């Protein structure tokens, strides 16, 4: 999609997909339901996306772009502050609506059956891992982080956050995000930062 | 189920459910498919379980019991060794067959739509949390663990493991379990054990 009109249509469809996922969940999501949210016809939707799966792959890509826009990192910012901010955003949001996260968990559980979902989820994950590992590398270079393995640490942090969010949805446990975030901050202070908590404050 | 015959039937149905989940996944699992695995009729299956959901709730309970049997803790064992062993079993198994874990992730993603699934998954989680928190408490009493919050630490450990297992399935990432397990062991050494690595060895 290139010109302004097409971009606007893309944005409208992505936002409609978000709302339709919240309302219907993944299993009951139809092209018709998304079309109704856009106010466009189902035929218009199919002009852009052949199948529901194509549309949802585009939606996963859109989520990644939205995340990047929301966590614009400033180069002059302290890597410790950057890491803390980004982890908090990953734990608590940016899309911490339960209905939406419930639908996303369903979609993710279908990745083993869908090459297209899995490929896009892997691409999203690689970008996130690279983003975190990049911050960690810069922190090590600047001497404010300990000499940890950036990729291993990134994978560990993302696993912990993924687990907390999954448990929040599966167990309907509202405390788990706060609990894990507190422990993650302590982990960073002791395992990653050179001078512990002082770096963040 | 009380007498020997009923217990044997229960065990046979649970094992058949395991195999049927591996073979068909969650979405395509039917009572017929499970009956075929047991060699019993579908009517026999319905004699024990009214619905597929009833059967799967019993199966979740069975998984917890199996886990308890596999990780029989000895009271005279070092809490550090106990914790290391149990975390490794949680990361890598006891049921680390991809097909099975794929089906389990689908089932778990349905918990927000099923009070019965969610109630049983919460009960399983409470028992696991209590098991870990109990080991941590004993470690603190024995003076081999630092003065951490047992429940918070247990919730954090379980989140990290849950996330690693979810990413293993969703991203088809075979390295993530090993990577996260290594980092978890380092976390234990630095954040939980009093004398770090020495306790485990």
What does this structure look like?
Chains A, B: This is Transcriptional regulator, TetR family. Chains A, B: One of its GO terms (molecular function) is DNA-binding transcription factor activity. Chains A, B: Residues 30-49 bind DNA. Chains A, B: InterPro entries: BetI_C, Homeodomain-like_sf, HTH-type_TetR-like_transc_reg, HTH_TetR, Tet_transcr_reg_TetR-rel_C_sf. The structure is a homodimer of 201-residue chains. The termini of chain A are far apart. By secondary structure, chain A is mainly α. In chain A, 73% of the residues lie in helices and 0% in strands. The mean pLDDT of chain A is 90. Chain A folds into two domains: 1-50, Arc Repressor Mutant, subunit A; 52-199, Tetracycline Repressor, domain 2, CATH 1.10.357.10. Chain A binds chain B through residues 25, 98, 102, 105-106, 108-113, 118, 121-122, 125, 152-153, 155-156, 158-164, 166-167, 169-173, 176, 179-180, 182-184, 186-187, 190-191, and chain B through 25, 98, 102, 105-106, 108-113, 118, 121-122, 125, 152-153, 155-156, 158-164, 166-167, 169-173, 176, 179-180, 182-184, 186-187, 190-191.
């Amino acid at each position: 999609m290139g010109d302004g009109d097409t971009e606007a249509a893309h944005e409208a469809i992505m936002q409609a997909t978000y709302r339709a996922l919240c309302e219907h969940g993944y299993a009951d999501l139809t092209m018709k339901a998304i079309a109704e949210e856009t106010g466009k016809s189902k035929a218009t939707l199919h002009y852009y996306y052949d199948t529901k799966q194509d549309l949802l792959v585009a939606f996963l890509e859109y989520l990644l772009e939205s995340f990047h826009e929301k966590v614009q990192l400033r180069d002059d910012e302290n890597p410790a502050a950057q890491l803390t901010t980004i982890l908090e955003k990953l734990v608590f949001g940016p899309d911490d609506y339960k209905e939406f996260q419930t639908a996303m968990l369903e979609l993710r559980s279908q990745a083993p059956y869908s090459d297209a979902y899995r490929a896009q989820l892997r691409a999203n994950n690689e970008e996130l891992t690279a983003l975190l590992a990049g911050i960690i590398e810069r922190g090590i270079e600047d001497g404010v982080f300990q000499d940890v393995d950036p990729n291993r640490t990134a994978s560990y942090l993302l696993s912990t956050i993924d687990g907390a969010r999954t448990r929040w949805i599966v167990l309907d446990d509202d405390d788990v995000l706060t609990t894990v975030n507190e422990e993650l901050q302590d982990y960073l202070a002791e395992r990653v930062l050179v001078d512990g908590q002082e770096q963040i404050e």
